Amino acid sequence: MTTNQRPLKNYEWVMKDLQEEIATGTPGDRLASVVDLASRFGVGRSTIREALSALKAMGLLDIKQGGGTFIKAVTPDSQPTHPGHAYPELWEGRVSSLRQILEVRRVLETGCAFVAATNRTEDDLAALQEILRTMELYTDDEARTEEADVRFHQQIAIATHNPMLCDLMASLSAKLHDSIRDMRALWFYAEKSSAERLYREHVHIYDVIAEGNGNEASARMESHITKVEQVLHDQGVGSSS
What we know:
Low-confidence stretches: 1-7, 75-90, 237-241
Oligomer: single chain
Domain HTH gntR-type: 8-74
Keywords: DNA-binding, Transcription, Transcription regulation
Protein name: GntR family transcriptional regulator
Pfam family, one: FCD
GO molecular function, one term: DNA-binding transcription factor activity
Order of helices and strands: HHHEEHHHHHHHH
């Protein structure tokens, strides 16, 4: 099976969680409002509307204009238990690719964090701080914080002042962006964590780089990546079982 799949969009991760919620609900039950769901998942309202529209197209919801969104009565044969059943190539292929990228990131980025803690300059720390400020100030702007997330990891490679490590990270630029997008989605939707908590993870990595503690910087980067792998495992996404 090919692993060159596009990354899952945010609305698809929301759709996964809502579909599981619908499966345990009762026909006629009313879902929370778009505003409440957006707050719960930490995404924009447009993302929630996309997820609801997709679930409606699957025959799982009845959306009444101005009247709310309700679970629709469906037959067992028509109700998929997991979005991956409806889109197997998308889910299985993407998750397999994500696992492979995370393995590469573990090797490369833990090493970058270690070297950056030794070689970083005050200018490097200032650049990382500026990225963190963006992540803190724009937690409600998915596109902006996602881009800042990518830049944070790339800036750590720059802070190593090792041209080969910088080139390796640059060569992974597109895949890095895709994996971080999925990592953020998993963090928010599968682990029910907030943008603020994800921001704090990055601050903790920055702190030990600023302190010059290479071993701890490597360990915190390892923990950061491992958490997402654990979520993948816990959710059983893309598993062969």
